[in-house]
């Protein structure tokens, strides 16, 4: 169980880092490299940005849950 949670924690950490870097931000970000910058400037907020927000939040929730679960396993030795 602990090993599975540790693997999930590492995967969600990497995915969350990638998703955060893909966000537009103030200066354009990495998402503008893939053509997202032109569309975002024209229409304000695209569906891609909204989905990217949802995926980032989902990864953060999974990441926090893994950290809490690993701490509980360590504290109570289950």
Unreliable parts? none
Number of discrete helical segments:
3
Mean pLDDT: 83
How many distinct beta strands? 0
Rounded Rg: 16 Å
**Helix residue percentage:** over 70%
Q: Order of SSEs, N→C?
A: HHH
**N- and C-termini, Cα separation:** 9 Å
Structural class: mainly alpha
Number of domains: 1
How would you sum up the global shape? Answer: elongated
Largest sheet: none
Oligomeric composition of the shown chains? single chain
Pfam families: SecG
Keywords: Cell membrane, Membrane, Protein transport, Translocation, Transmembrane, Transmembrane helix, Transport
GO molecular function: protein-transporting ATPase activity
InterPro entries: SecG (IPR004692)
Explain how this protein is built.
The protein has helices spanning 2-22, 36-43, 47-76. The protein is mainly alpha-helical and 78 residues long. The protein has one domain. The longest helix has 30 residues, at 47-76. The radius of gyration is 16 Å and the shape is elongated. The relative contact order is 0.17. The mean pLDDT is 83.
